Amino acid sequence: MHKKKTSSFNEKTLLNRLLKNYALILVSLILIGMGSIGMNTYWQSMGRGEITAQEAVDMISRSINDKNLQGKTMLNGLTDNQEKINNLNRYMDTSISDYLNYSYDQQLATGNYLFLPGQVKNFYTMYDNIESIIMVLNNYNDYYLSTPQDKSGKKISGTPRLNNKFYLAYPITNPVTLEVLGSFYVEFSQKDIIDSLTHLTTFEGLSAYVFSSTGYQLLTYTEKDNTIDQQLIQQKMKESSALPLQKLTGDNILEHLQTTSGFDILVTISKEKILTHVLFDLRILMLGGLVLILLLLYLLYRTFTKYSQQVDIIMGSMALVSEGDLNTRINEQETQFELKELSRGINTMLDNIEQYISDIYKLEIKQQDAHMRALQSQISPHFLYNTLEYIRMYALSEGSEELADVVYAFSTLLRNNTDQAKTTTLEKELSFCEKYVYLYQMRYPDRVAYHFEIDEALKELVLPKFSIQPLIENYFVHGIDFSRNDNAISVKARLVDGQVKILIRDNGKGISPQKLTLIKTKLKSQQIELHDSIGLQNVNERLRAYFGPTFLMTITPNETKGIAIELSFDEPIS
Q1: Structure confidence at residue 463 (pLDDT)
Q2: Contact 502, 571 (CB under 8 A)
Q3: What is the pLDDT at residue 268?
Q4: What span, in angstroms and rounded, lies between the C-alpha atoms of 232 and 242?
Q5: Is the pLDDT at 302 greater than 80, yes or no?
Q6: How much is the average pLDDT of 176-188?
Q7: Is the dihedral of CA 105, 108, 114, 116 positive or negative?
Q8: How far is it, in rounded angstroms, from Cα 287 to Cα 484?
Q9: Mean pLDDT computed over every residue of the chain
Q10: Which of 56, 69, 46, 71 minimizes the C-alpha distance to 219?
C-alpha cells in the first residue's frame, strides 16, 4: 500500500513538473514569437512603405512621361513645319473669318487643309485627359485658350493664369531658324494620378509633390493634415528651387526622382503613421497571445494524462505504414483534440498517397501511349515523303519530267501542310501558292494561266502561314469556269511608300453586289458567320491580329470579270 502511494505520488510530481516545464516553454515560445512577429511587422511595414513610395514615384513618373509625350505630339502636330508656323501666326493675326478664307486658299494652293481650331478639337478626341490648351506667341498681346467646353478655342487678351493647375509647358520654335516664338501649355487632369495614389497603400500618411523644371508646383497630394511639411517644401522651393530632403528624411520615408525632362517628383510617407499602424496591430497580437497562452495551458492540463497513450496509438499505426501496409488507418475515436486532428490529417494523407499512386500509374500508361502515337506520327509523314521522292526520281529516270514536276509540287504542298511552323516568308508563301496553282494547271491543261510577281524587298517579309493560299483556293472553288480556256489569276506584292500591298486578281465568275456587300459587312465583325467566305474572314482576322490596325483587306469587282482582293498594311519595322 505504501509502495502504491509512493508510485502515485511520484507520477503526480512528475506530471506537475512536466506541466510546469511545458507551460514555461510554451509561454516563452509564444512571447518570443509575439516579439518576433511584432518586430517583423514593424520592419515589413517600413519596407512596404519604402516600396509604396518607390511605386508612387514610378507611377507618377510614368504618368508624367505619358502626358509629356502627348503634349509634345500635339505641339509637333501644330508646328513641325514652316507652313504650320505661318498658319499659327495667321490665326493670331487675323479675324476668324479671314483666317478661314486663308485656310481654304492654302488648301487650294498646297493641298493641305490646316485649320487650327479643328486641329485642337481633334486633340480632345485623341486624349481624354486634357483640361485646357493654351498657346502664347511672343509677337501678340492675345493668347489662345481651348477648354472642353469650348474645344475650338478662342483668342483672349492678357496673360494666361496657370496657378494651381497641372500644366506642362513647351517652347514653340521655328523649325527652320530654331527661334523661340512662344509657349505651348497643356493642362492635364490629375484624376488618374490621384486615384492611383489613393489605392496604392493600405496605411495613411502618403504625400506626393510634383514640380516643373522652373519650380512651378504641378501637383500636391496628401492623405493627412500635413501643412508643416507642405509649407516647408513650398518655402524652400521659392527660396532656392531645391527640395528640403534632409529635413524631411527624419520623420518620413522619402523617395525623390528628378526626371530627364526636368520634373521633380517627391513622395513622403509619415513614419508616425506607420508606427501607429504597427502598434495597433501589436495590441491585437498581445491580446490574441494572452488568450492563446491561457487556452494552451488549459488544454495541456486536460490532455496530458492521455497524451502518451494516444501518441502510442499513432506511432503504432505509423510503424505498420513504414512496413508497407498502406491500408492501415488510425482509429480517430481513440484520440482527442489536436491528436484527433493529426490522426484525421494522417488518414487523409494516406488516402491521398494511395490515390496518387493510382493516378501516377495511370498517367505513366497514358504517357507511354502518347509517346508511341508521337513516334507513329513522325514515322508516317517521313515514309510518305520518301515514297513520293522515289516516284519522282523514277519518273525522271523514265523521261517523264512533267510527271516528276507534278509529284515534286504535290510533295512540297504536303510537306508545307504538315510543317508545324506558324509563320513563313512572303516568298515561300507565294512559292507554295504557285505550286498549288501549278497542280490545277496540270490537271486542266491549256485552261488556267497564272502570274506571280513580288518585289525584291518583300521576299523575306514574315507573315502567318496560309495567309494567301485560302484566297487563291476560293478562286478555284467558287470562281473558275473550267469550260473556258482563258482562266487566269495573278498575285502581285509591291512596296509602295512604306506600305505593303498584295493584290490577287482573277477573271472568274465574280461575286454578286448583294453577296459582296454581305462579305464586307461580315469582315468587320469579330465573329465568323460567313458560310461561303470563312476563308476570307479567317485570313482577315489572322493578318489583322498579326500586323495590327494598319492591316486592311479590300474586295472589289474587276472591270470585266472576276474580283480583286488587296491586302495592305504598314511595312513591319525590323
Answers
A1: 92
A2: no
A3: 83
A4: 11
A5: no
A6: 90
A7: positive
A8: 95
A9: 79
A10: 56
Residue 490 pairs with which residues in a beta bridge?
451, 505
| pLDDT at residue 202 in the model | 66
Asked whether 37 and 285 are in contact (CB, 8 A), the reply is yes
DSSP SS3 for 144? strand
Helix (H) or strand (E) holding 553: strand 552-557
- The cell for 32 is 518570443
Angle between helices 2-79 and 271-322 (to 10 degrees): 130
The strand pair at 154-157 and 264-270 is best described as: unpaired
Is 343 exposed, middle or buried (CB count within 10 Å of its CB: 0-12, 13-18, 19+)? Answer: buried
Q: Which residues contact 167 (CB under 8 A, 6 or more apart)?
A: 134, 185, 186, 187, 188, 216, 218
Contacts 24+ apart (CB under 8 A), 299-306: 299/337, 299/338, 300/19, 300/22, 300/23, 300/26, 301/19, 302/337, 303/336, 303/337, 303/338, 303/339, 304/15, 304/18, 304/19, 304/22, 305/15, 306/336
* Those residues with Cβ within 8 angstroms of residue 544's Cβ, 6 or more apart along the chain or in another chain: 551
List all residues 6 or more positions away from 558 whose beta carbon is below 8 Å from its beta carbon: 505, 506, 507, 510, 564
Q: How far apart are CA 423 and CA 466, in angstroms?
A: 9
Q: Is the pTM of this model over 0.85?
A: no
Q: Which of 465, 544, 469, 558 is nearest to 511 (CA)?
A: 558
The total of other beta-carbon atoms located within 10 Å of residue 375's CB is 10
Secondary structure element (H or E) that encloses residue 93, with its range: helix 82-93
pLDDT of residue 441: 82
Residue type, 539: V
Asked if residue 425 lies in contact with residue 462, where contact means CB atoms within 8 angstroms, the answer is yes
Question: Do 205 and 224 touch, CB atoms closer than 8 A?
Answer: yes
Higher pLDDT, 340 or 375: 340
pLDDT band for 402, please (50, 70, 90 cuts): low
- For the segment 405-431, what is each residue's pLDDT rounded down to a tens digit? 666 666 665 555 555 578 889 998 998
The SS3 assignment for 259 reads coil
How deeply is 189 buried, as exposed, middle or buried, from its count of CB atoms within 10 A (0-12, 13-18, 19+)? middle
Query: Per the structure block, which three cell numbers stand in for 65?
Result: 512621361
* CA distance linking residue 116 with residue 74, whole number of Å: 12
Residue 159 has pLDDT above 80, yes or no: yes
Mind listing the pLDDT tens digit for each residue in 93-109?
888 888 888 888 888 88
Report phi then psi at 239, rounded to 5. -75, -45
- The pLDDT, as a whole number, for residue 405 is 66
